[in-house]
């Protein structure tokens, strides 16, 4: 107990007397009081890690987006009198179930509701002097459909000399439904992210974090969100560095593209009809009806739509709109004009991203992959397009990637490469080239995560699949990973995790992610341009390499042209789905 008291005294000293109510803390309970612009919060110190971490959980950063605030931009949270407990996670945002998801904070899942705009602060209790710590804000992935800040235990990362914040944002139909006009412009989930970052700017110093040294980082849809925030004029000045793990604004699933077979307006009209909101030509009346609709019925309607329309992960996404102005023009337009927030960036992908989404490759006994099966795998990448463009793009991808049909093993490798490059790698490389050219006053780094975990459930011929790097960013030795069958890690796993945690936190601290793990590790050089395309191949012994697969960029440019509507074709007819 004396140790905890000493740590609390150190933490109090580090944060400064102005931010803490020392007199309101019992002498032996391990609680901490912190003043925010909304009121006083009571958190608790977790003394189990190597550096005890103060945790403030379930902190509201906006009013509940319910009733008249549903399908509206977030509104600042009300202040409160007295002391508010911040000891348990707030509700997750409404979403479908994903029981196998391994990234879970705590022993039980928080409830789900529309009242979900909460964040969590993890602040280490030991630091040097009075200096404020760099801040890392995690934006979770989940295809804009699922996930939460509480699903990630970032405690170990916070022991590395950074303050870490995790956030929730509205998902699925609640985060992105749009009638395509000013009444319901969409992007509510993205506006939630902006609101959370403004809360960090205004309050994080009270927790010991530096509001002028903020790094946002995310994975998959969270990574695409980070990328979009680097483009959004609303996010200017809210962060100084950005880390993107497996997703960018140009990814085919990242935003609503003109070339999509189903537009956001079509999806909104179909979902509205499903909950008996039928005034489709009057957006104001439609909004009023939707704000009164049962939330679970809305969620169920969204799920049914996704199953029937079969358009992949592009039904509820961020979109171009000028009402809020989160994304005033297309990502390609903003990137080509150099209209980018000038921040340091680090982005990359895993070696076999799409392996997780291709169950036929994992069947036991193994399935013999034929050229026809390989075409089906590739065809899934173009499901969002109308039939004419599906045919054209499938032909392009097949002719590019299925060059050798001599064996099942070769075909599955080619099909997976086609899926990876179309869904992730091509867009990341194109965006990297734009940013390196237009934001040359900042540092930019590229990686390929290539470590196959010792506990991987993927087929043995695959390396790192989508999401694998997160085990290592958040400490592969976490007990909950082991409890869920993801471990115990071996020595190489632990080495890679130590590397990843040091690289990510070094980047947040200094803008240079080079790690000293293993001892004498390679210097991670910047990605300067397509003529000096340095990237780090991350493994137990990482290697600095030069990117050479220019055909990946060339092919994805053609896909992107179709996404952006420069290859127009008549849309497929949309037929009524709900009776």
Describe the secondary-structure layout.
Elements: H1 2-15, E1 31-35, E2 40-46, E3 53-60, E4 83-85, E5 92-93, E6 112-113, E7 118-124, E8 133-139, H2 155-158, E9 163-167, H3 172-176, H4 188-203, E10 209-219, H5 221-231, E11 241-245, H6 264-274, H7 283-292, H8 295-309, H9 331-337, E12 344-350, H10 371-379, H11 387-401, H12 408-438, E13 444-449, H13 468-473, H14 479-483, H15 491-510, E14 527-529, E15 532-538, E16 543-546, H16 550-563
Parallel strand pairs: 2-4, 5-6, 8-9, 8-10, 10-11, 11-12, 12-13, 13-15
Antiparallel strand pairs: 1-2, 2-3, 3-7, 7-9, 14-15, 15-16
Overview of this protein structure:
By secondary structure, the protein is α/β, with parallel strands linked by helices. The protein is 33% helix and 15% strand. Strands 1, 2, 3, 4, 7, 8, 9, 10, 11, 12, 13, 14, 15 and 16 form a 14-stranded mixed β-sheet that branches. Strands 5-6 form a two-stranded parallel ribbon. Strand 15 and strand 16 form a beta hairpin. The longest helix is centred in the last third of the chain and has 31 residues. It starts with a helix and ends in a 16-residue tail after the last helix. The N terminus and C terminus are likely disordered.
């Amino acid at each position: 107990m004396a140790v905890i008291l000493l740590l609390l005294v150190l933490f109090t000293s580090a944060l400064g007397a102005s931010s803490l109510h020392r007199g309101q803390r019992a002498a032996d309970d391990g609680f901490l009081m912190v003043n925010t612009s909304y009121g006083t919060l009571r958190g608790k110190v977790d003394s189990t890690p190597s550096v005890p971490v103060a945790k403030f959980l379930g902190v509201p950063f906006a009013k509940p987006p319910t009733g008249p605030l549903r399908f509206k931009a977030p509104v600042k949270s009300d202040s409160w009198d007295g002391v508010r407990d911040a000891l348990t996670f707030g509700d997750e945002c409404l979403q479908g179930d994903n029981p196998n998801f391994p990234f879970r904070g705590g022993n039980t899942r928080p409830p789900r509701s529309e009242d979900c705009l909460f964040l969590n602060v993890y602040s280490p209790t030991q630091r040097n002097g009075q200096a404020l710590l760099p801040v890392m804000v995690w934006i979770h992935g989940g295809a804009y459909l699922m996930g939460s800040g509480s699903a990630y235990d970032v405690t170990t990362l916070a022991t590395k000399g950074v303050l870490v914040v995790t956030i929730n944002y509205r998902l699925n139909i609640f985060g992105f439904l749009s009638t395509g006009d000013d009444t319901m412009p969409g992007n509510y989930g993205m506006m939630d992210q902006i609101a959370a970052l403004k809360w960090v700017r205004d309050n994080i110093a009270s927790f010991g974090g530096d509001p002028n040294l903020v790094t946002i980082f995310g994975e998959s849809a969270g990574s695409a969100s980070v990328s979009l925030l680097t483009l959004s004029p609303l996010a200017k000045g809210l962060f100084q560095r950005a880390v993107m793990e497996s997703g960018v604004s140009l990814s085919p699933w990242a935003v609503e593209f003109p070339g999509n077979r189903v537009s956001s307006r079509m999806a909104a009209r179909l979902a509205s009809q499903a909950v008996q909101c039928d005034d489709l030509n009057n957006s104001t009346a439609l909004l009023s009806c939707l704000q009164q609709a049962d939330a679970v019925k809305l969620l169920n309607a969204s799920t049914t739509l996704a199953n029937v329309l079969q358009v992949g992960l592009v039904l509820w996404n961020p979109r171009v709109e000028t009402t809020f102005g989160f994304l005033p023009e297309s990502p390609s337009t903003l990137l080509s004009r150099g209209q980018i927030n000038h921040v340091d960036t680090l982005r990359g992908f895993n070696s076999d991203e799409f392996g997780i989404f291709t169950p036929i490759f994992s069947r036991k006994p193994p399935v013999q992959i034929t050229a026809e099966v390989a075409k089906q795998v590739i065809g899934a990448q173009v499901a969002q397009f109308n039939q004419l463009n599906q045919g054209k793009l499938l032909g392009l991808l097949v002719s590019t990637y299925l060059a050798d049909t001599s064996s099942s093993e070769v075909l599955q490798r080619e099909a997976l490469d086609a899926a990876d490059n179309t869904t992730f790698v091509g867009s990341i490389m194109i965006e990297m080239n734009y940013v390196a050219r237009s934001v040359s006053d900042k540092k930019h780094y590229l990686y390929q995560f290539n470590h196959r975990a010792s506990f991987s459930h993927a087929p043995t011929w695959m390396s790192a699949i989508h999401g694998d790097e997160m085990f290592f960013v958040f400490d592969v030795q976490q007990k909950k990973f082991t409890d869920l069958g993801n471990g115990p890690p071996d020595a190489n796993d632990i080495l890679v995790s130590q590397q990843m945690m040091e690289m990510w936190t070094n980047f947040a601290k200094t803008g240079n992610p080079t790690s000293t793990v293993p001892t004498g590790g390679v210097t991670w050089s910047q990605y300067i341009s397509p003529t000096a395309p340095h990237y780090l191949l991350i493994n137990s012994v990482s290697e600095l390499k030069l990117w050479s697969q220019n055909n990946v960029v060339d092919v994805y440019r053609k896909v992107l042209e179709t996404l952006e509507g420069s290859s127009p074709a008549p849309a497929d007819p949309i037929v009524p789905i709900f009776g």
